[in-house]
Amino acid sequence: MDIGTLWYLIERDKLHRVVTAEEFEQLQPDSFTLHQVFDNRREALHEMIRLVQTAVDEVSHQVDEKTNARPHSK
User: Fold this and answer.
1) By residue range, what is the domain housing residue 34?
2) What's the domain count of the chain?
3) DSSP states of 49-73 as a string?
4) Torsion of CA 5, 40, 8, 45, to 10 degrees
5) How far lies 4's CA from each of 9, 26, 32, 40, 69, in Å?
6) Which of 15, 23, 47, 55 has the greatest number of C-beta atoms within 10 Å?
């Protein structure tokens, strides 16, 4: 495995990002959360999409619960 070709899935400023090894090395250690390291960009992007979709589904579920708990106004 060539370290120069690795892709990093990180969370920074409440956003998920896929960065190269070069970009990763330039980050401040406490400025991000590392989720996973991938051999190629496609796999990293696929996982990022999955994480974002999971977060959207969770928020949607929470909104649905709150909406259903309130009486409908006319």
Assistant:
1) 3-69
2) 1
3) HHHHHHHHHHHHHHHHHHHHHSPPP
4) 150
5) 15, 13, 20, 11, 51
6) 47
Half-sphere exposure of 73 (CA within 13 A, CB side): 1
pLDDT tops 80 at residue 64: yes
Residue linked to tokens 């070709």: 5
Rounded to whole angstroms, how far apart are CA atoms 37 and 47?
A: 10
Residue with tokens 């090894």: 21
Predicted confidence (pLDDT) per residue in 3-62, tens digit:
668 999 999 999 999 999 999 999 999 999 999 999 999 999 999 999 999 999 999 999
pTM reported for the whole predicted model: 0.78
Quick check: is 35 in a domain? yes
